[in-house]
Design a protein that fits this description.
- Helix 1 crosses helix 3, helix 2 packs across helix 3 and helix 3 runs antiparallel to helix 4.
- By secondary structure, the protein is mainly alpha-helical.
- Helix content is 82%, strand content 0%.
Length: 74
């Protein structure tokens, strides 16, 4: 997965971001505010947003928009 490529680094960062959300308590706070589906989509929105900042591509931006639409709908 890693192979010293940008996409591998971004994937590792994305998964690290999820781990950090659980470690620091953000995930716990979100579970008390949102239903399970929205909770999952918000975590994905957050991780994809920061992945996009590391390596902005149209594909990564598409993921950000996809999860934003799932939560806040359009």
């Amino acid at each position: 997965m890693y192979a010293n490529k940008v996409s591998g680094k971004v994937t590792l960062f994305h998964e690290w971001f999820h781990s950090n959300d659980y470690f620091e308590g953000t995930a716990s706070r979100l579970t008390s505010l949102y239903n399970h589906t929205d909770f999952h989509n918000i975590l994905e929105f957050r991780a994809h947003s920061f992945s996009y900042l590391m390596s902005p591509t149209q594909t990564r931006f598409g993921y950000v928009v996809r999860y934003a639409n799932k939560v806040w709908g359009h």
